[in-house]
Amino acid sequence: MEKPEKLIVDGKRLDGRMPDELRSLRIEAGVLKRADGSAYVELGENKVLAAVYGPREMHPRHDQQPDTAVLRCRYNMAPFSVEDRKRPGPDRRSVEISKVIREALEPVLFLKLYPRSVIDVFIEILQADAGTRTAGINAASVALADAGIPMRDLVSAVAVGKVEDTIVLDLTKEEDQLGTTDMPIAIVPRKQLVTLLQMDGHLTEDEFKRALDLGFRGCAQIYEVQRQALREKYGVKEE
Ligand code: CDP
């Protein structure tokens, strides 16, 4: 990637956004016929599919838990999703991301309702441009709701960070690679509960607070689009 001289010019980012602006976001619920629940998310150049199966009997049986369902998440990047072909199959990064996505979603699910069962969430990254784990969480939570699985709330997620000296919302790949800090977060909006927070880089305490606040505001916007996607699928009128 050729390094641009500046990532922020006259207060605007290279793609024309203000620091507190999200990329264009589109969410559609129920896009896959054979999954129990599904969703498609486009966030800027990211294209992400989530498919949910279950709750269904856990196999292999020795992984069954007698008092609860188990949430299984698999984050996978298609070989053609990135600039340099991604070797198919799991790697350290996708194993880590699958784990943090599971932990981000678990708190909203009533897993105890389904002993010995499993809920499978497959997240497929078709095109990547930074923020795929958070786009994956947004897709997965709509897909879980689409599957009719009882949930306390949706989970909304976005990355915030620091580019040059500016705190920004929803970093592009260029900003992620050439900026200073990338901090993906996921929250349960109605409880204001943080279920994922990672940080690559450094922030001062004041910058961290501002970044978190910006992330909460970004998640509130995403939450509305998630809810709208479900309303459209189920024909619920605007409140
Ligand atoms: O996608 P996310 O920001 O959640 O995770 P990351 O590990 O910070 O990756 C940032 C971006 O780097 C991805 O979204 C891809 O665009 C890119 N990437 C890539 O080009 N090749 C890989 N093998 C992994 C990531």
Give structural attributes.
binds cytidine-5'-diphosphate; 4 helices; about 240 residues; four-stranded antiparallel β-sheet; 11 strands; alpha+beta; five-stranded mixed β-sheet; about 25% helix; Ribosomal Protein S5, domain 2
Please summarize what this structure is:
This protein is an alpha+beta fold and 239 residues long. It is 27% helix and 30% strand.
Biggest sheet features: 5 strands, mixed
Which small molecules are bound? Answer: cytidine-5'-diphosphate
**Global mean pLDDT:** 97
CATH architecture: 2-Layer Sandwich
Number of strands: 11
| Helix/sheet category | alpha+beta
The topology string of helices and strands comes to EEEEEEHEHEEHEEH
Runs with pLDDT <50, length 5+?
Answer: none
Largest sheet: spatial strand order: 3-4-5-7-6
Radius of gyration: 18 Å
What is the level 1 CATH name? Answer: Alpha Beta
Instruction: Please name the fourth-level CATH homologous superfamily.
Output: GHMP Kinase, N-terminal domain
Q: How many domains make up the 3D coordinates? A: 1
The number of helical runs is 4
Molecular shape = globular
The percentage helix is: 25-40%
Give the termini distance in whole angstroms. Answer: 46 Å
**CATH fold-level name:** Ribosomal Protein S5, domain 2
Describe it.
Helices cover 27% and strands 30% of the residues. The chain has 239 residues and is of the alpha+beta class. It has a single domain (23-234), classed as GHMP Kinase, N-terminal domain (Ribosomal Protein S5, domain 2), CATH 3.30.230. A five-stranded mixed β-sheet has the order 3-4-5-7-6. Strands 9-8-10-11 form a four-stranded antiparallel β-sheet, sandwiched between helices. Strands 1-2 form a two-stranded antiparallel ribbon. The mean pLDDT is 97. The structure holds cytidine-5'-diphosphate. Residues 82-83, 86, 93, 128-133, 159, 173, 176, 182, 184 line the site of cytidine-5'-diphosphate.
